[in-house]
Specification:
By secondary structure, the chain is an alpha+beta fold. Among the domains are: 91-192 and 202-300, Vaccinia Virus protein VP39 (Rossmann fold, 3-Layer(aba) Sandwich), CATH 3.40.50.150; 310-396, Nuclear Transport Factor 2, Chain: A, CATH 3.10.450. The protein is 25% helix and 25% strand. Strands 5, 6, 7, 8, 9, 10, 11, 12, 13 and 17 form a ten-stranded mixed beta sheet that branches. It is globular, with a radius of gyration of 23 Å. It starts with 6 loop residues before the first helix and ends in an 11-residue tail after the last strand.
């Protein structure tokens, strides 16, 4: 039996739509948390090669699945290859909200404001067109690295990762077609997954989160285009962090609430805020197969004109034709892709994103942009790990399919032995999916898996 739920939380929820106290309490006391994954459609693999045992599909997700049990993902090479992402099923409903509130037939600019560790970012990237732009932002520096790792493993190219405060996005007025704010919250929706969090919950913390959520939304809304969509979500049950925020949004900003069409079988609870009858969607673990979650969407109606206060930085230094020719033995040329120098590295990026980079450089601190191919050293490419994992370029680098034991040795940064292999760069694959790079020399094999990502679990 899990820890008892806070009495203050239960009392506060008594008048909230969809709350059924006996069933809610019983579910938290007796049920085990649900494990679910979302498959990367750009990386084809056989489930039998992974540690996944599929139970059933997540009904509101095009690529989400429940598992029969939680395996050791650390010991699955396909997990490290970005073939799937371990994501809570309720939060996958973001897909439905985006599809119903945005025109995905167009190329759009999207901001995932509170992006780490990357679950919603990888979901968004899977939905938008290849010529759309996704900016994944994380304000906490210590969390940016794990966000970068997960985006890289996912193989995405049309992505920029930034490390900025929400107010910094006011330098990009009326810029984004969609802003997703999965706001920091009191976390009561995840009590089943993390019972220790019960000890940290309090009414006072809920109020502090409410104020913080208002500040974040106030800071970022100027960056949303008129007609653009704001999606706000939390993993909290508290009315103050959910429906109360929707009323505050309408009262203080020129936005309209968006109604999302639900299927009855989902058993998701539609709510209406007390004052403005804004639509919200609640996920109760005693009603759905997932954890506690709240999500809502708004359309921005109009905005005052905001002027840029600085000139954009110069356009990135485009790759010389001679250098591009040196790279063609590593991958097929891509007509709709541009190549440029970034410090000592070479970056590939869809043409449609290039016009945005100068503006983003001016406005934001950018951690990562596009696909890092590597660096040219004495006319030879020192390829980046990203090049092996990416799905944009068709590599000419030879590949080697290995068994699970060898794949795990590679991911642990151990020495690996492969006989009968030509000298030079090779991409290691497991289950048909790329893991990374090795370089075969006359007397040894150099393992180029990133040191900071290596498996330390035995």
């Amino acid at each position: 039996m899990n820890k008892p739920l806070p009495d203050d939380l239960l009392s506060a929820l008594n008048n909230v739509t969809g709350f059924d106290a006996p069933s809610f309490i019983q579910t938290h006391q007796e049920a085990s948390p649900i494990t679910s994954v979302r498959i990367n459609k750009n990386k084809i693999f056989n489930i039998s090669d992974s540690v996944l045992t599929i139970d059933e599909k997540v009904s509101w997700s095009s690529s989400g699945f429940y598992l029969t049990h939680r395996p050791s993902f650390t010991l699955d090479p396909l997990f490290h290859a970005g073939a799937y992402y371990v994501q809570e099923a309720s939060s996958m409903f973001l897909e439905v909200v985006i599809k119903q509130s945005c025109d995905l037939q167009n190329n759009i600019k999207v901001l995932d404001l509170c992006a780490a560790p990357g679950g919603k970012s990888t979901l968004i990237q899977s939905l938008i067109s290849k010529d759309s732009l996704l900016v994944c932002n994380e304000v906490i520096k210590t969390r940016v690295n794990v966000l970068t790792e997960n985006i890289t493993k996912w193989g995405a190219t049309n992505v920029v990762i930034s490390n900025n405060d929400p107010k910094d996005f006011q330098r990009l007025p009326n810029y984004f077609d969609l802003i997703v704010v999965d706001a920091p919250c009191s976390g009561s929706g995840l009590f089943r997954k993390d019972p220790d969090a019960i000890n940290e919950w309090s009414i006072e913390n809920v109020s502090l989160c409410h104020q913080r959520q208002q500040r974040i939304l106030t800071d970022v809304l100027p960056a949303l285009k008129p007609g653009g969509t704001l999606i706000y979500s939390t993993c909290s049950y508290s009315y103050e962090e959910n429906e109360a925020i929707t009323d505050w949004l309408v009262n203080n900003n020129d936005v309209d609430s968006i109604k999302i069409q639900l299927e009855e079988k989902w058993n998701i609870i539609e709510t209406n805020s007390q004052e403005n009858k804004c639509f919200g969607y609640r996920f109760y673990p005693n009603k759905i197969k997932g954890e506690g979650f709240f999500i809502t969407a708004f359309q921005k109606k109009s905005t005052s004109e905001i002027k840029y206060d600085k000139k954009p930085k110069p356009h990135p230094d485009l790759l010389k034709k001679a250098d591009l020719a040196k790279l063609e033995k590593y991958f097929e040329p891509v007509d709709d892709c541009q190549f440029f120098y970034w410090k000592n590295d070479i970056i590939a990026m869809p043409f449609k994103m290039m016009n945005e980079i100068t503006l983003l450089q001016f406005a934001l601190y950018i951690k990562k942009a596009g696909l890092n191919i590597g660096s040219l050293i004495r006319d030879e490419l020192l390829p980046s790990h990203e090049l092996a994992l990416n799905t944009l370029l068709h590599q000419k680098i030879p590949t080697i399919e290995v068994k699970k034991e060898t794949a795990l040795d590679y991911l642990r940064l151990h020495d690996i032995k492969i006989s009968g292999t030509e000298i030079g760069w090779h991409i290691i694959k497991y289950g048909g999916v790329s893991l990374g790079l090795i370089k075969v020399l006359h007397n040894r094999i150099n393992n180029y898996y990133p040191k900071e990502w290596r498996i330390v679990h035995k």
